[in-house]
Amino acid sequence: MSETILDIKNVNTFYGPIQALRDVSLHIRTGEIISLIGANGAGKSTLLMTIFGAPKAKSGQILYKGQDLTLLQAHQIAGKGIAQVPEGRRIFAKMTVEENIMIGALPIGDKYIDEDRATMFELFPRLKERRNQRAGTLSGGEQQMLAIARALMGRPDMILLDEPSLGLAPLIVRQIFSVLKELGKNGKTIFLVEQNANHALKLADRAYVMVNGEIRMTGTGAELLANPEIRDAYLGSH
Ligand SMILES: Nc1ncnc2c1ncn2[C@@H]1O[C@H](COP(=O)(O)OP(=O)(O)OP(=O)(O)O)[C@@H](O)[C@H]1O
Ligand SMILES: [Mg+2]
């Protein structure tokens, strides 16, 4: 069994007086695909943001390769090899697709840039076709692909994605999940936050269910998919 790359222990996070995360513990091993599912407002994005130090955890530990990220400032965490694809994508709208991709390599320099750009265009042929198009004019699904490609250009050890399926048509969602699956097969460590429980659980090696800021359930993706409570609450089927 490979070693734990991210070990979140008893994390509590507040927005002012409001507690958004309650004693959250979860772990991710190198090479695993882990999904976190939960309803609107459950605290999923807050957990991802807490990993990056904004908001800061009030208590608990977030051990990344053994180092406690809660003791670092947000800008120090940024250089640790964890890539984030945030909710809402945040691509550079006025730059071209290709320029956005190249920017993703900034943290590691240009040593692998040609090789990695070619890999991104293989993973996402749509981006290759549109390499000279302004990113702001891409469709939502294409922008999501671009955000993922840009994150991968930094050769992160781990990639965190916040609702990559949000607002996208089923066909595009399937394409994006099939890329994530391929990345997982190639050994990339992936932490995926999703309301789309069906896709997220099918993809995941293991998954966690968050309710009101707490982890309520965990198991393999297949176990949770088969669980009647999960089916009722998140899959809209019985
Ligand atoms: N900046 C903020 N200030 C105050 N409260 C916040 C802030 N951001 C989030 N919250 C609250 O924290 C709780 C968790 O929100 P969060 O965005 O983490 O949920 P989520 O699971 O990502 O939901 P969604 O699926 O809708 O994206 C919610 O009650 C939300 O209103
Ligand atoms: Mg969210």
TrEMBL record:
Domain of life: Bacteria
Gene3D superfamilies in the cross-refs: P-loop containing nucleotide triphosphate hydrolases
Record GO terms (molecular function): ATP binding; ATP hydrolysis activity; branched-chain amino acid transmembrane transporter activity
Keyword Membrane: yes
Classification via CDD domains: ABC_TM1139_LivF_branched (cd03224)
Record-annotated ABC transporter domain positions: 6-237
Keyword check for Cell membrane: yes
Keywords: Amino-acid transport, ATP-binding, Cell membrane, Membrane, Nucleotide-binding, Transport
GO biological process: L-amino acid transport
InterPro entries from the UniProt entry: AAA+_ATPase, ABC_branched_ATPase_LivF/BraG, ABC_transporter-like_ATP-bd, ABC_transporter-like_CS, BCAA_Transport_ATP-bd_LivF, P-loop_NTPase
Pfam families per UniProt: ABC_tran
Similarity annotation: Belongs to the ABC transporter superfamily.
Listed name of the protein: High-affinity branched-chain amino acid transport ATP-binding protein
